[in-house]
Write a structure and sequence with these properties.
The chain has helices spanning 15-19, 54-62, 64-67, 163-174, 202-220, 259-268, 283-293, 299-302, 319-331, 334-338, 376-385, 401-413, and strands spanning 80-86, 112-115, 122-124, 138-141, 155-161. With 428 residues, it is mainly alpha-helical. The chain has four domains: 15-75 and 168-180, Cytochrome Bc1 Complex, Chain D, domain 2, CATH 1.10.760; 79-161, no CATH class; 185-302, Cytochrome Bc1 Complex, Chain D, domain 2 (Orthogonal Bundle); 319-413, Orthogonal Bundle (Cytochrome Bc1 Complex, Chain D, domain 2), CATH 1.10.760.10. It is globular and about 60 Å long. The two termini are 44 Å apart. The structure holds heme C (2 copies).
């Protein structure tokens, strides 16, 4: 790893734009072991920490080509254990009991743990939060990701990350984070949603398909149904682009997004998930792939996006406004899903599903670095317009504008800076 990835020499022009700031003295003071050498073949790992969700990494070590089709990195399948199981399908799904699975599942009958295999019959099992098997429950193979056309699988291979791999992913996620949240400052993260209209000429669509086939199929699948071979590793799953339902919009709940919305998402990626940022692709390729993904859903044939909502200037933040927001956060029952402290652990959290009935977690608002953008306007937009396809509703009708600004500031205060020595934050 040291030979292929390291941080000190950046020989190629434009590397800063692509990977982030160059290293500075002192940045690695707390890294064990210190990574020293010159840049060789792969990306600078000190700039990969927190770039992707953990799930991206689990797909990537299994086979880098699943998520980066032109990657030359070897696959590291020996960092996983595999258990083959024959499927006895019953009406309710298949309880499976090969004895090896006892090490990974308690087989307690109360909880079923859905596993979503890909068409090759590979089903990844995400590690428990503390990294220690077993998971408490019984695994159940679930084919709902395939909709009306499930593949016929007679056996599946369950794939478990080893303890070493869980540790490796955590280690990589920490690299470069001593420097703070620098990625948020990169231009690509702050890209606005310009009022652009992308013309879809045959040439643009041809380029768009090329980009899609080269970069997006591994996750979003050939037809855009979200069933690429990597999908079994990923939670949240890649978007099913054939439905034309999108979370990150400037348009009202239920509307198609604007071209600018899609351009913004593709450019900045979706933080904490496997959806990468694509800012390193040339502009014309990003524009073309947006035009192309609109051909994957028939919604665009007979609907137009509604006009974007106008979001005014935020009021000035004051301690009173934040306190008011805290009050409203309780009253509007945000805590039911996001938890009293905003950690994403409210009482409804374990049972939430998205519109396709896949499990979904409410955002952990204490991490900052939000999927939809991390400014007060971004939070306000999310609260006002909702995240379509997910349980996060629009509060446009139930809360006044002033109330939404107050809560938005309170949401930001949940991730405000804390003193690393005392753990004390700004007074709330
Ligand atoms: C490594 C897997 C992966 C790759 C590669 C990938 N995506 Fe995604 N994509 C995801 C995941 C996962 C989500 C869902 C994120 C969420 O729901 O929070 C997503 C969501 C999206 C969305 C939906 C955003 C919204 O508003 O709901 C769009 C659009 C999208 N991807 C486009 C693309 C395009 C275009 C490419 C190729 C240039 C691409 N993706 C490549 C994993 C991937
Ligand atoms: C029914 C459950 C539910 C309620 C109630 C709810 N949320 Fe959410 N919220 C979610 C879920 C689930 C997500 C994550 C969607 C995702 O990741 O795709 C989310 C996402 C968000 C995000 C986006 C975070 C990001 O990464 O961009 C913000 C901000 C947010 N919620 C704020 C609020 C506030 C403020 C309230 C109360 C006014 C609220 N939510 C009420 C379920 C809920």
């Amino acid at each position: 790893m040291l030979y292929c990835h390291s941080q000190y020499v950046r020989p190629v022009a434009g590397e800063d734009r692509r990977w982030g700031p160059i290293s500075e003295a002192g940045e690695y003071a707390f890294d064990r072991p210190p990574l020293l050498s010159s840049r060789r073949i792969g990306p600078d790992l000190a700039r990969v920490g927190l770039k992707y969700g953990d799930d991206w990494h689990y797909a990537h070590y299994w086979d880098p080509r699943l998520v980066v089709p032109d990657s030359i990195m070897p696959s590291f399948k020996w960092l996983y254990t595999r258990v083959r199981v024959l499927l006895h399908t019953t009406e309710t799904g298949a309880p499976m009991m090969p004895p090896e699975l006892r090490a990974y599942f308690t087989m307690s009958a109360e909880t079923s743990i859905p596993l979503y295999p890909n068409t090759d019959g590979l089903a990844f099992v995400a590690p428990p939060a503390n990294g220690r098997w077993p998971l408490d429950g019984t695994p159940v193979i679930d084919l709902k990701g395939f909709g009306d056309h499930p593949p016929t699988l007679t056996r599946v291979t369950l794939v478990f990350p080893t303890h070493e791999l869980v540790g490796l992913v955590r280690y990589i996620q920490r690299l470069g984070t001593n420097r703070g949240a620098w990625r948020e400052m990169l231009e690509s993260q702050t890209v606005g949603a310009p009022a652009m209209t992308i013309p879809s000429s045959p040439e643009v669509l041809r380029l768009g398909r090329e980009v899609y086939d080269a970069r997006c199929v591994g996750c979003h699948g050939k037809n855009g149904d979200g069933n690429g071979p990597a999908a079994t590793f990923l939670s949240p799953r890649p978007r099913n682009l054939t439905l034309g339902v999108f979370k990150f919009r400037t348009t009202p709940s239920g509307s198609l997004p604007t071209d600018g919305d899609l351009y913004r998402t593709v450019t900045r990626g979706v933080r904490w998930t496997a959806m990468p940022t694509w800012h390193e692709l040339p502009d014309d390729e990003r524009i073309a792939v947006v035009a192309f993904i609109k051909t994957l859903s028939s919604r665009w044939n007979h609907e137009r996006p509604e006009p974007p909502a106008t979001i005014g200037d935020p009021p000035t933040a004051t301690p009173e406004l934040v306190a008011h927001g805290k009050d409203l956060y309780q009253k509007a029952q945000c805590s039911r899903c996001h938890g009293e402290e905003g950690k994403g652990d409210g009482e409804s959290a374990p049972d939430l599903t998205d519109d396709l009935k896949f499990p979904i977690r409410p955002a952990d608002l204490t991490r900052g670095r939000l999927k939809g953008g991390s400014t007060v306007r971004d939070v306000f937009r999310t609260m006002t317009l909702g995240l379509d396809g997910s349980p996060m509703p629009s509060f446009a009708d139930s809360l006044s504008e002033e109330e939404r600004w107050a809560i938005s500031y309170y949401v930001l205060s949940l991730s405000a800076w804390k003193d690393p020595l005392t753990g004390l934050g700004a007074a709330r």
